[in-house]
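## Example record

The block below lists the input lines for one assembly entry, exactly as stored, with component labels intact.
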Amino acid sequence: MRQFTAYTPTKIILGADAHRNVGAQVLEYGRKVLLVYGGQSLKSNGTYQDIVDSLEQSNLSFVELGGVQPNPKLSLVYQGIQLCRKEKIDFILAAGGGSVIDTAKAIAAGVCYEGDVWDFFVEGKAPKKMLPVGVILTIPAAGSEAGCASVITKEDTKEKRTLVNELAFPKFAILNPSLCFTLPKKQIAAGGTDIFAHVMERYFEPVGGNEFSDRLCEATMITVLELLPRVMNNPRDYDAWANLMWAGSIAHNGILGAGRQEDWASHNIEHELSAEYDIAHGAGLAIIIPAWMRYVYKKHPERFLQFAERVFGTKTSENTYLNSEAYKEEIIQTTIDGLEEFFRSLGQATRLSEAGIDDSRFDIMAKRATQKGSLGSFMKLETEDVLNIYRMAL
Amino acid sequence: MRQFTAYTPTKIILGADAHRNVGAQVLEYGRKVLLVYGGQSLKSNGTYQDIVDSLEQSNLSFVELGGVQPNPKLSLVYQGIQLCRKEKIDFILAAGGGSVIDTAKAIAAGVCYEGDVWDFFVEGKAPKKMLPVGVILTIPAAGSEAGCASVITKEDTKEKRTLVNELAFPKFAILNPSLCFTLPKKQIAAGGTDIFAHVMERYFEPVGGNEFSDRLCEATMITVLELLPRVMNNPRDYDAWANLMWAGSIAHNGILGAGRQEDWASHNIEHELSAEYDIAHGAGLAIIIPAWMRYVYKKHPERFLQFAERVFGTKTSENTYLNSEAYKEEIIQTTIDGLEEFFRSLGQATRLSEAGIDDSRFDIMAKRATQKGSLGSFMKLETEDVLNIYRMAL
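Predicted structure tokens for the full assembly:
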């Protein structure tokens, strides 16, 4: 096990009516709120009005910034920063999923900084101060509600980059499972795939000696595999949503990676895809993960055998010819096929060609993905490796 | 799943040399430190000197309060409060296990309160302010390093009572697995039993619908069952200790109970035992848990079957006569016997009589355990039930 610091200060509040009391939470930190959200669904399902009512009950004033898109854009962050300065905002409330939350975090960092907020995403500079951010989560997916990262895309250069800083942990995250009842199936599938990916990027690591977090990762992956089909089949299954929301927060608040050498190659490879083609991050992961697995598994096949046994329930150890390399290979291939089939069963494309993407931009995406150096730790990936993974995903 | 608030703000720092930089951590919160610890082992193994060196390097002054005993006493808490006031202490550093940490927390609450600190333990009063507390953990057991509870015993009345308050979360907890290499086996066994108990008190709950935290609890119990024998056999197994320390913190920082109706009857029944006989808390739990299980399992046998299958690896679902009640009964009995045997394999007594305790105080202990009302939620236990459990444990 590697040395680690685990810090998860975000207060998680889960409950059927939890968001109706958001004003009381905000009051601990600010008086003038910027409410950040995405599209019309927040208004049409009544959540917007619930939030406004609660803010008003707590005598909080607010201005709003709607229109956040998937793969959130830097231009809207700049707009938010200007708005905060003009209106003397002291708290940012994000009501939505990862894109909304990441936009809120980027604005929170930019408001307190004289330079260009993009410095934090590409220059390695660290914010010294940020406005406090709170979250009302409307879809379990990105895990941004309990994490300290923000992923933003610069439109003109199509760069998708990440800020990671302890100041970016939201003060609180309100999880109301009922808010998920009306989500489109496509978003549910992509969100669940993203949660799975956050665990798997930590799970497949080369160090070993992490028996406890192995088990925690496996527990979280099994939960996604079991409960995601449940909410796909019955979108009003409160308990299934509650478990998925909680799993989504734990999956990406850092504790599942404590002591591990995390990988994150699949995420980086996917980021280029969604920056280039603007497909949803989770949808891109459903395509990239199986290809990444097929490309790297030979580096540490024992990790994949453990995954097969504990997550997919394959009884590897009972088979008499376990020690045959061919049999191990078969188990691993079958398991990766099984995961691809799981993603497909959620209605997702698992090949680039199925998503209407050809090989014309592979070169440029592979170069951009590796412009800061090789990717991953389970297997170090150079530009050529990333290119091969795109090709395998075709 | 029930609604919940999960809040785990303690920063966990795990590493081989982590405690040598404690001064830098303390500096974020205070300038004048009370160093609380137990006996001579802290000095004889060099840890005391490492701490002093680090505090001095950070130009922090300190006074010390040694001599904390297992089942920590209120009288020492009073002594610590007086010392803090006299020396104008602004930070309390606990170096030890649960007793030391709980003493530090109680002092931290008492210093900022004009009345008797015992009010917080028996009167239901909540502290409004506490001094900041930091921890250097020397044994994985109580989980107090990452939790917001303090358990203190009032000597004259033999009452063992608990304070629970968000202010009692330590600011940081430093976990250095190497500090565990020289622990006596008896303490290792009792500590591991306590960790197991913290999970099991959350796991056996009547509500259901907690698929995710079921899995997290199971992951943590399996970790204890697998790694505790490893450190018993090889006390210098760094990775095993690292995993156990991390499991010990997660076991009791609250997240494993999120959404669940926790039980805590075994803890309360044991508390009377260790208040009356001054045996170690974990040693008492090794006796009480199997008796509690045998007394309550019929209330929700399906929970015990899941425990048998997922934690003990009993293949309940493959057996053709699973639906036979007698067979289910047999699986459950065998599993409880197996857990008792596990505790015994660590060198622990699993019956009161083996620990030299007879039935002469059962009545008074059962009455005291239930003086505020019934115990538990898996099965509600009245005075007579507690008495029966003591009898079963004889």
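Chain A touches chain B at residues 1, 3-9, 11-16, 18, 209-213, 215-216, 218-220, 222-223, 226-227, 238-240, 242-244, 246-247, 250, 255, 258-259 (CB under 8 Å). Chain A has 15 helices and eight strands.
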